[in-house]
């Protein structure tokens, strides 16, 4: 029986991990706090995970924020600025007995997961759109990740949404989940509001201002799906992030896609589905990247 792979998803607050087996099943899931100090502390944390499972694994597959080279160099690293320029794959391998290590951008990992075993598995071309602190994702063309010359293909957060001179609003600053939740807090005066509670209030129609605001959010995302369809023309757009665990989120996006299709000059109606693997997509996508790199 083939040994498993230690999959690690590096976030700004926590490092999530699990052992992934040949059938894509995950065991031994857990999380530890992400160090925000030095590369040495960071490596020590990852090595301690390796030491716990080294007899059971054949490699380490990592999902991380930022622009990441094919060789596993962290060209950028989101809020973990101390990792910028750090060759994570090489450095971690050296302190972990030379074990094979691969590193993939988190949004691209989620896209690869969905394209391999999730909502996009039956199609050659798919796009993942992941809502959270920002709006990440990835583009899959003929089952391969589209990276681009600067490795930013599929990073949807900085796309401009307004074409007036002097306006620099971008997709994430207006439409990320964290932005929408924060605006919803102002409307409801609920300081502990989260995405789940926000959607519950929408269902209850407790605040007309909130419902109008969220309706505009759903419509904006639906329009963005049309833009994605024109740019990449994928077979399916997979929508993920914590907010997508509520089925109403994607349902409302689909409803607005129908409205746009009836009212606007568009080529076709984009096919939109919820990401199948939700919070596990980064771990599974990192594993998909590992087996692809190793030719397994």
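^ structure tokens above, recovered residues below v
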């Amino acid at each position: 029986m083939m040994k498993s792979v230690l999959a690690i998803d590096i976030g700004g607050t926590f490092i999530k991990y699990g052992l992934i087996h040949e059938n894509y099943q995950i065991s031994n899931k857990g999380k530890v706090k992400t160090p925000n100090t030095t590369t040495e502390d960071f490596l020590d944390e990852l090595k301690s995970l390796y030491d716990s499972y080294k007899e059971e694994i054949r490699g380490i597959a990592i999902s991380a924020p930022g622009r990441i080279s094919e060789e596993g160099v962290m060209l950028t690293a989101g809020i973990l600025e101390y990792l910028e320029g750090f060759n994570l794959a090489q450095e971690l391998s050296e302190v972990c007995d030379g074990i094979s290590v691969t590193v993939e951008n988190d949004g691209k990992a989620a896209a690869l997961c969905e394209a391999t075993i999730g909502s996009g598995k039956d199609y050659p071309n798919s796009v993942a759109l992941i809502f959270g602190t920002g709006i990440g994702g990835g583009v899959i063309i003929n089952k391969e990740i589209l990276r681009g010359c600067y490795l930013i293909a599929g990073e949807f957060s900085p796309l401009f949404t307004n074409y007036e001179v002097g306006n620099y609003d971008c997709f994430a600053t207006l439409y990320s989940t964290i932005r929408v939740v924060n605006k919803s807090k102002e409307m409801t005066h609920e300081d502990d509001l989260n995405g789940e509670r926000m959607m519950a209030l929408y269902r209850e129609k407790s605040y007309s201002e909130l419902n109008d605001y969220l309706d505009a959010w759903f419509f904006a995302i639906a329009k963005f799906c049309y833009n994605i369809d024109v740019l990449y023309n994928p077979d399916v757009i997979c929508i993920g992030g914590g907010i997508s665990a509520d089925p109403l989120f994607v349902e409302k996006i689909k409803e607005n896609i129908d409205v746009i299709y009836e009212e606007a000059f568009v080529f076709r109606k984009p096919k939109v589905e919820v990401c199948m693997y939700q919070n596990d997509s980064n771990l599974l996508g990192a594993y998909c990247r590992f087996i692809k790199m190793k030719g397994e």
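The first strand starts at residue 4 and ends at 10.
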